[in-house]
Amino acid sequence: MHLPEGLIAIVKQDCPTCVLVDPVLRHIEASGLPLTVYVQDEPDFPSTRQVVDDRSLEASYRLHIETVPTLIKVRDGQEQARVVGWERDEWRALTGLAALGGELPAYRPGCGSLAVQPGIAERLALKYGDFSIHSREVEVPTLSDSTEYCFERGWSDGLPVVPPTAERIYRMLQATTRAPGEVLGAMPPLLTACTVEKVAINAVMAGCKPEYLQAVLAAVEAALDPAFCLHGLLATTWFSGPMIVVNGPARKALGMNWAGNVLGQGNRANATIGRALQLTVRNVGGGKPQETDMSTFGHPGKLGFCFAEDEDTPWTTLAEDRGVSRERSAVTVFSADGPLGCADQKSRTPEALIYSLAGSLRGLNHVDMVNGADAVVVIGPEHGRVFDLAGWSKDDVTRALHAATHIKGVDLGMGTAPGAVAGSDAGLRAKFRPGGLTLVRAGGQAGMFSAIIPGWLVKGELGTDPVTREIRA
Q1: 3-state helix vs strand vs coil in the chain, percent to 5
Q2: Is 137 part of a structural domain of the chain?
Q3: How far apart are CA 165 and CA 136, in angstroms?
Q4: Average pLDDT over residues 117-123
Q5: Are residues 346 and 444 in the same domain?
Q6: 327 and 266 within one domain
Q7: Residue 469 domain-assigned?
Q8: Which pLDDT tens digit goes with each residue over 371-391?
Q9: Parallel, antiparallel, or unpaired: how do β-strands 70-75 and 6-11 relate?
């Protein structure tokens, strides 16, 4: 933007302070100083001669005006100084007029610039800035309902989505320094290039706040890791879908839930971060039920399955176990079925509680199946206290559960090499592979319950492994 020499004032009539300084602007003009006044709303205001109509707000945007009135001094086309609001001594120093505004109060705060109002700021950035959206723009017919239009286009998971307008996408992308065109990977099953921008679009549709975007990006990157085998997870006829567990300072910063109803509804961050991953898989990769998502039953968590871990316990956190310090934030993705409850309101010793949890675990998927699936065990606070009071660490509990879940089982062909497991007369076998049980702390304070979340029936080299990614600051 070419800046006129001398003084520039940016005002609007709908601002008491701007109205207050109208005579001051006339004084500046009468003194012979070059003055250009940009007005954001009413061209007939103020009463100076050199008034520029800035109802388009282009000048206000390019001058980065956040508050009016703002007075700027320009020399040789470059800004030298500015004063925001009415500050008599500063206006006098900037203009060199010692008697300026003597009849006015010494100070009055300004008003918010129209250029920074929600919605307007994004439109101005899209119109006048160097930002552009690369995804194909779809025009919604004038008389169409935008939410219904998204349903009709197949962009929904069955619930209403937030229409991804250019302004909303821009606002979402301001939450990351990553380039919108950065490719995170090929999203299965169609193996479409999944960019930061496309993830942001689906985060908008899911109802995410911009501050959730970094967690969503980390979850997408984790899901695209070959070790997670997202393509196979989509193609399976089993129940499973992606589940996200969040650790670190981001849990509190995003307002996530790790307490009561932790696996249920009611928390925006939990619900929309998980939903954003699922919508990205659907809308970028084409993972749609009865098309490329071949699950026989599915489960309600495939709308979006995400929760945070309770880190106020003596145990190490999930992220710590996977190499990320408590000072950092991370997401871990699992293949997950719906949760199963384990109720034990009588056990007061770790050994008794292990008996209850192991009994529930032994029957997962099939009572005789070994090496069939991994499982996440979400230890509730009351069960957790039983272990804590006895001094049992997470490793202690994990080892005890593995030992207690040996069964006289057989390999039913799910995830082990042929011949690796003999018939049912071979004695007791491990229900879960080494590392196949993951323990997490979460849940409400009342109720001696824990939750067991089994996963896809294929894992390891032939299927899925949990994957952890740090959330970028």
Answers
A1: 35, 20, 45
A2: no
A3: 12
A4: 91
A5: yes
A6: yes
A7: no
A8: 888 999 999 999 999 999 999
A9: antiparallel
Structure tokens at 75: 């020399």
pTM for the whole thing?
0.88
Indicate if the pLDDT at residue 28 is higher than 80.
yes
Residue 256 lies in a domain: yes
H/E segment holding residue 350 = helix 350-362
* Domain final residue, candidates 314, 337, 360: 337
Query: How far is the CA of 437 from the CAs of 101, 432, 454, in angstroms?
Result: 74, 7, 9
Q: What is the spatial distance between Cα 80 and Cα 72, in angstroms, rounded to a whole number?
A: 7
Contacts 24+ apart (CB under 8 A), 148-157: 150/205, 154/288, 155/205, 155/279, 155/282, 155/283, 157/275, 157/278, 157/279, 157/282, 157/303
178 shares a domain with 87: no
Strand 437-441 versus strand 375-379 pairing type: parallel
Q: Please list the residues that pair with 342 across neighbouring strands.
A: 450
What secondary structure letter does DSSP report for 229?
Answer: -
- Which amino acid belongs to residue 431? K
In angstroms, the CA 71 to CA 107 distance is 14
Residue type, 292: T
Q: What is residue 408's predicted lDDT score, i.e. its pLDDT?
A: 87
H, E, C per residue of 84-124: ECEEHHHHHHHHCCCCCCCCCCCEECCEECHHHCCCHHHHH
Residue 65 CB contacts under 8 Å (≥ 6 apart), including other chains: 10, 113, 115, 116
Tokens of 319: 């992220």
Range of the domain at 368: 339-454
3-state secondary structure of 405: coil
Q: What number of CA atoms fall less than 13 Å from residue 377's CA on the CB side? A: 29
In-domain check, residue 282: yes
Together in a domain, 186 and 294:
yes
Spacing of C-alpha 364 from chain mean position: 32
pLDDT in tens, 147-159: 999 999 999 999 9
Strand partners, 62: none
Model confidence over 296-321: pLDDT tens digits?
999 999 999 999 999 999 999 999 99
Burial grade of 33 (CB within 10 A; 0-12, 13-18, 19 or more): middle
Q: 284, 186 in Cβ contact below 8 A?
A: no
**Any idea what the CATH number is for the domain that residue 113 is in?**
3.40.30.10
Whether residue 172 has pLDDT greater than 50: yes
For the chain, how many structural domains are there in total? 3
Q: Are residues 249 and 343 in the same domain?
A: no
**C-alpha span between 457 and 371 (Å, rounded):** 8
